[in-house]
Specification:
With 194 residues, this protein is mainly α. It contains ten helices and two strands, in the order H-H-H-H-H-H-H-E-H-H-E-H. It has a two-stranded parallel ribbon with strand order 1-2. The longest helix is centred in the middle third of the chain and has 20 residues. It is globular, with a radius of gyration of 16 Å.
Length: 194
């Protein structure tokens, strides 16, 4: 069995695929971080995000949305001057705005619950045999994207949302020929922790 074909031979990519991608994530803050990182990827490769992830975590105060929601022009200027991150004003400002949107959802029901309720609390288990079968977006990612935007999120189009859903295990898109498909499927059978 071979890893999913998108991985390539980069050890950082291999480690991400083998330990993170597709594993069901239930922590509200971690889910928000991963959605923000998917937004930062727009127009870039995922390996670029992986290589800058620790710098981004440091610059964005551990991706603590409660802290980031309070930021303004001074923090945007600081981030735009940081050569260790992706210096894109729109993505930086979107992160601050989405931190505020996250707070609202978190207070209402929990960001984790909001996301997992989209699939009834259990991951969608796909059984793709080739990368050509894997969609770039789905009806669910279109619907979720629209709702996130309505709530104040940005850089969360249907393709970004679907990549996010794959990354956090809301959908298991490991190919059935990948050694991670079955273990990730078993993880998805566990109930959402309370």
């Amino acid at each position: 069995m071979e890893r999913c074909g998108w991985v390539g031979a980069d050890p950082l990519y291999e480690a991400y695929h083998d330990t993170e991608w597709g594993v069901p994530e239930y922590d509200s803050r971690a889910l928000w971080e991963k959605l923000v990182l998917e937004g930062f990827q727009a127009g870039l490769s995922w390996i670029t995000i992986l290589r800058k992830r620790e710098n981004l975590r440091h610059a964005f105060h551990g991706f603590d949305p409660r802290v980031i929601a309070t930021w303004g022009d001074a923090e945007v200027a600081r981030l735009l001057a940081d050569p260790g991150i992706i210096r894109h004003r729109g993505k930086i400002e979107a992160t601050i705005g989405s931190a505020r949107a996250w707070q609202q959802i978190e207070a209402e029901q929990g960001f984790d619950r909001y996301l997992w309720e989209q699939v009834g609390g259990s991951p969608i288990q796909n059984h793709w045999r080739s990368l050509a079968e894997v969609p770039a977006q789905t009806e669910l990612s279109v619907r979720l994207s629209k709702d996130l935007k309505k709530r104040g999120f940005m850089f969360c189009g249907p393709t970004i949302v679907y990549a996010f859903m794959q990354a956090v295990g809301i959908v298991n898109d490991h190919l059935v020929t990948c050694p991670r498909h079955a273990p990730v499927a078993r993880m998805g059978q566990a109930a959402h922790p309370d």
